[in-house]
Amino acid sequence: MSATASKSPGNVADKGVAPLKLKAKKIRLAIVRSRYNPFGGAERFVERTLAALEGNEIDVTLIARKWDGAESPESAKKDWRLLTCNPFHIGRLWRDKAFAKGVQQLMAREKFDLVQSHERIPGCDIFRAGDGVHATWLSLRARTLGPVARWAQSISPWHRYTLQAEHEMFRSKKLRAVICNSVMVREDLARRYPKLVRRLHVLHNGVDLERFHLGLRARHRAVLRGQLGLSASVPVILFVGSGYERKGVGPLLHALLRPELVNAHLWVVGKDKAQKKFEALARKLGVAERAHFHGPQQDVARYLGAADVFALPTLYDPMPNAALEALACGLPLLTSTSCGAAELIRRRDCGVAVDALDVSSIADGLAHLLSMACDVTQVDALRDSARAAVSHLSLEEMANKQLALYRQLLDGAE
Questions:
Q1: Measuring CA to CA, which residue among 402, 404, 407 is closest to residue 128?
Q2: Is the pLDDT of residue 13 over 60?
Q3: Quick check: 144 pLDDT over 90?
Q4: C-alpha pair distances (Å), 311 with each of 37, 54, 250
Q5: Of 62, 174, 182, 382, which residue is 20 to 30 A from 114 by alpha carbon distance?
Q6: Is residue 266 domain-shared with residue 381, that is, in the same domain?
Q7: SS3 of 131, please?
Q8: How many domains is the chain built from?
Q9: Which CATH number belongs to the domain containing residue 242 in this structure?
Q10: What is the rounded distance in angstroms from the CA atom of residue 313 to the CA atom of residue 334?
């Protein structure tokens, strides 16, 4: 195992996270995340957590296989230690096993007060189930697979290892708390592991309410649409995310064929190795002139300000940051019933949740939201309702709840 310590350069650009002083002794906290992807929602959550913890009486160590904060738009000076744990490996099964073993060795050696892992590693004190439950993901994914592919998934060594690690971690007596970023995940885990119920804590992701706001519409709508050759009256559906297949780009392209969306355009923002495959699908369906693939963007604010509706009919997503940011900007949300963000719009007229594979329901839901978003008599109330759905999820609120959980665990309560 290779382990090196360093100070990460720079100051996170998140606004509005006030220092939160803890009165007791300084906590030695380790946060575990295997690899940093500058466009990944989980990694952005970790960066925001680190930013929120700066200035507090807490000593943070980040344990990662690979982390390059310099690539992140939110990166700047940070006051935390980095431990790199990147053992030699070939393939993802060996990689994940070696990383888990290396982290377990570091936990034994460093004697942290708390270890919060974002990976499925038995022996951690806190697990943040940001990626949800792997067993649930596999069962939902099987809906999209043929018989041969389902069989291949069932015998996959990597999936089997991940399921075993997940099961061992959730049954471990060392696990003191599970952070669930949605009620959906908490209820799923409560069903699967009834003995865990008292250790399940719902802490929603925080959203930067100063960076993502209603004013982005006036700032970017006319400018970006002008650059892209679209008039203000063209209905625009925005998708943001990596993992096009899982998050629903295919069903969205098929939905564009429906009569109710014949005038709508789809913007796809995000990095995906299969982008050319989906561009080819758009051409095959005859919607290529209305489906625009913009690739990864360091700053999605322009697109959020210029679009009318945000669509994420994901097959499985515990609580996508992209959906929270869209709501904060006043965009109504179409998502799936297997997405944690559905709980935020359930009691508000600012979104629709449908089956991820039901193209007809996706088209109907988008048409309904677009009809309101493009109606001058309804759009302001719609946007206010969307913003209100996440107005309680500030970064400061997220930090307060996490710090309260740490103190609760150190005080001996669960």
A1: 402
A2: no
A3: yes
A4: 22, 34, 12
A5: 182
A6: yes
A7: coil
A8: 2
A9: 3.40.50.2000
A10: 7
- Average pLDDT (375-380) is 96
Residues 191 and 239 both lie in one domain: no
Q: Is 334 part of any domain?
A: yes
What is the DSSP-derived secondary structure letter of residue 76?
S
- Please check whether residues 245 and 145 belong to one and the same domain: no
Range of the domain at 377: 216-388
Per-residue pLDDT for 9 more than 50?
no
Band of pLDDT at residue 16, cut at 50, 70 and 90: very low
Summarised one tens digit per residue, pLDDT across range 242-269 is 899 999 999 999 999 999 999 999 999 9
211 within domain boundaries: no
Smallest Cα–Cα separation from 332: which of 371, 383, 378, 376?
Answer: 383
Give dist(CA 339, CA 343) in Å, integer: 8
Residues 81 and 154 in one domain: yes
**364 has a pLDDT exceeding 60:** yes
In a domain, 51, yes or no: yes
254 is a domain residue: yes
Asked if 32 and 50 sit in the same domain, the reply is yes
Which is nearest to 89 in space by CA: 80, 81, 99? 99
The rounded percent of the chain whose pLDDT value lies above 70 is: 85
Band (23; pLDDT cuts 50, 70, 90): very low
Say if residues 237 and 252 touch (Cβ distance below 8 Å): yes
Residue 76 backbone class (left: φ over 0; alpha: ψ -120 to 50; beta: rest): beta
- Asked if residue 186 and residue 66 are part of one domain, the reply reads yes
